[in-house]
Amino acid sequence: MQANPAASVPTHVMWDESMLAYNFGQQHPMSPIRLDLTARLSADFGLFDRDNVSVVAPEVATDEQLQTVHDAEYVAAVHAVSANPDAPDESRGLGTEDDPAFAGMHEASARLAGGTLQAAEALLSSKAVHAVNFGGGMHHAARDKASGFCIYNDCALGIQRLLDGGVQRVLYVDVDAHHGDGTQNLFWNDPRVLTVSIHETGMSLFPGTGFANEIGGPDALGSAVNVAVPPRTGDAAWMRAFHAVVPQLAHAFKPEIIVSQHGCDNHARDILSSVRLSVDAQRQMMLDIAELAREVTDDRWIATGGGGYDIFNVVPRSWSHLVAIVSGQPVPLRAEVPQRWRDYVLERYGQTAPLLMNDDAQLWWRSWEVGYDPNDAVDRTVMATRKEVFPYHGLDPWFD
């Protein structure tokens, strides 16, 4: 049997139990339990013990590092609320219903950010070719404001570090159910960064942005790409949209590194979106991005987590698939969930965990090449996106 070359790619997994300190409280959907269960499931599959994998404990990002994308005044405000959570700063999104204040908020948030920064450093120094920070993906945080459970935007910080380190073109792919507004806006007028977000339309879901006509600033037209699918979009339509936009732009843009955000709140069981994907489709997009990295970036790839609020059934399975794929050896789609992990979930939380690593979905989609259907809502939004941005990349919106 021929060896899988991807299985030997040096991979950093950014993980340490200190990341569980990012905790908005028991009633908040962004529970740190999802990170703990992901790490435990990944460990039970032996993913952390692979010869090509280094598990790296993230360090707290410094204020200087954070200020490469965030205003100094905002970082100071996070410090202040972190030290005194009884004095929130709602004008900066700190101490709101979405982002409740808690003691140690700065350090906890800066540690998640530090994970993606260290991933970028590892690629720049060639210590790693792949890296994954499933505790990251905080894509809503803006330059001067917290938003949508996100305090510091680790995705943007990682991208900025790559740019500062000499990388000329970065492709950011965001498949979270929610629009990757923070990351898009931070690079709105930077032609070196192509941000692509596939998400439920802002007509029905937070943050209310991410439409096809959001295409970047005057110096970077075509650098922001948005595919806003309707509620209840399932596997076949979502995957059709992904494959009608992402590979074409990746090949045209020719990035040196891909940074991807894999929020799994697009799953049918998730409480915070109306998208209807399976773990099978989430895993397939990971494989597709891995293939794009091999084809266009000399295999350089940083992956992050993001949203995901079904913390027992979906998140650990999806992100364990992510760790496995980033490290070069996918967990088989119909693999059994390790009994040890299922026993832990039952004994610790009283929850019955899934038996298999997939949802047994019929994962098939209609290729864009077979034709555009104007009566199909997803086809209409895909065509709107292609018309807006494809010409800026030398692509024909009807045929490429």
TrEMBL record:
<dbReference type="InterPro" id="IPR003085">
    <property type="entry name" value="AcuC"/>
</dbReference>
<dbReference type="InterPro" id="IPR023801">
    <property type="entry name" value="His_deacetylse_dom"/>
</dbReference>
<dbReference type="GO" id="GO:0004407">
    <property type="term" value="F:histone deacetylase activity"/>
</dbReference>
<comment type="similarity">
    <text>Belongs to the histone deacetylase family.</text>
</comment>
<comment type="pathway">
    <text>Ketone degradation; acetoin degradation.</text>
</comment>
<dbReference type="InterPro" id="IPR023696">
    <property type="entry name" value="Ureohydrolase_dom_sf"/>
</dbReference>
<dbReference type="InterPro" id="IPR000286">
    <property type="entry name" value="HDACs"/>
</dbReference>
<feature type="domain" description="Histone deacetylase">
    <location>
        <begin position="28"/>
        <end position="325"/>
    </location>
</feature>
<dbReference type="GO" id="GO:0040029">
    <property type="term" value="P:epigenetic regulation of gene expression"/>
</dbReference>
<protein>
    <recommendedName>
        <fullName>Acetoin utilization protein AcuC</fullName>
    </recommendedName>
</protein>
<dbReference type="GO" id="GO:0045150">
    <property type="term" value="P:acetoin catabolic process"/>
</dbReference>
<dbReference type="Pfam" id="PF00850">
    <property type="entry name" value="Hist_deacetyl"/>
</dbReference>
<dbReference type="InterPro" id="IPR037138">
    <property type="entry name" value="His_deacetylse_dom_sf"/>
</dbReference>
<keyword id="KW-0006">Acetoin catabolism</keyword>
